[in-house]
Amino acid sequence: MALTGCAGWEYRENVCGSGEYPVLAVGSTGSACVSDKEEPSAGYVRYPKGRVPQEVGDKWDVYWETHTLDEDGKTVDVP
What we know:
25% strand, two-stranded antiparallel ribbon, 79 residues, single chain
């Protein structure tokens, strides 16, 4: 009896757990997860709508490795 793997299946890890959302550290590429029932702590902000990373290595997770938000909420390249 031969066993076969699932061709094309790829494991993707969620950025945050159930009941949480990701937040970005202002002025750096740091991030954290916050309970859906809470607002971000000082120094953290929500990602801009439509540019929120959902899975490790997805388009927006990779994008935010080289970009951040400044104190005015503008997207800037990381120095």
